Amino acid sequence: MTSPLVSADWLAAHLTDPNVAIADCRFHLMQPDAGQQQYHTAHIPGAYYLDLNRDLSSPVGPHGGRHPLPDPAQLSHTLQQMGVNSHPTPTLVVAYDDSRLAFAARCWWLLQYLGHPQVAVLDGGWSAWTAAGYPTTAAVPTPRPGNFSPQLQPDRVLDIEQVKARKDLLTVTLVDAREGDRYRGEREPIDPIAGHIPGAVNYPWQEVTTDAGLVRSPAAQQQRWATLPATDEIIVYCGSGVTACVDLLSLELAGLPTGKLYAGSWSDWCSYADELG
Q1: Which residue in the list 25, 107, 238, 245 is annotated as catalytic?
Q2: Is 238 a residue of the active site?
Q3: Mind listing the pLDDT tens digit for each residue in 49-108?
Q4: Which sequence spans correspond to the domains of the chain?
Q5: Is the domain covering 155-276 a CATH 3.40.50.40 domain?
Q6: Would you say the CATH fold of 155-276 matches that of 5-152?
Q7: Helices (H) and strands (E) in the chain — how many of each?
Q8: For 129-138, how does the pLDDT look when each residue is reduced to its tens digit (9 = 90+)?
Q9: Does the predicted TM-score (pTM) go above 0.70?
Q10: Are 214 and 123 a contacting pair, CB within 8 Å?
Q11: Into which CATH architecture does domain 5-152 fall?
């Protein structure tokens, strides 16, 4: 599997493939239980629900941002219960949401971070699946035994000290994936401080997909990054390390160097406001 994308048609043809596991990542930041409620109402047959707060993040602390990375052992156990295998044939994990990949891309990135590159997002998400008339169900699948074992890739993630030390280097580009008005400090609906990390350039994550949630072509992704400075290292952040993963997906689709995630992102940066000045 080379592409980080699968189509609804492809997934429909592989619904019963034992080497495919499906993760429903629907979530709503302002209504944390809404995604799971949607899942219990209807989901893609065989899909397991992964909650942004409970499965794809760890509890919030004084620092680390609003969505700290999950405990690798705990997430690995969850993936095992979904029947995800590391060997002999690695399971392809397909993640979907209904938010233009905002949460599915987080799952995609986390699998990469855990050393499992056999992961993709569903192009167009839940909307594309239902628009095509494919089946849905309310039945929750029973756990399947898997042998998933993580091989952490620590070079894919940075903390605030690493970002502070690297962001002004000529070999590094820092990318802010939030909407333009949040980047410019004109609006800040969530965090206590508006603005961006000094030196960051803005590539809003919503540009990766169409309004319908379909991923723009590889050529469009390349064009999107055409103005990116040619540096050796790309660090991406957003509000809390979630939607930045959509930009990281875009970089891969464009064939550019693998970006790194500042996991705590702006919400973590803000938490050190007194120290940062």
Answers
A1: 238
A2: yes
A3: 999 999 999 999 999 999 999 999 999 999 999 999 999 999 999 999 999 999 999 999
A4: 5-152, 155-276
A5: no
A6: yes
A7: 11, 10
A8: 999 999 999 9
A9: yes
A10: yes
A11: 3-Layer(aba) Sandwich (3.40)
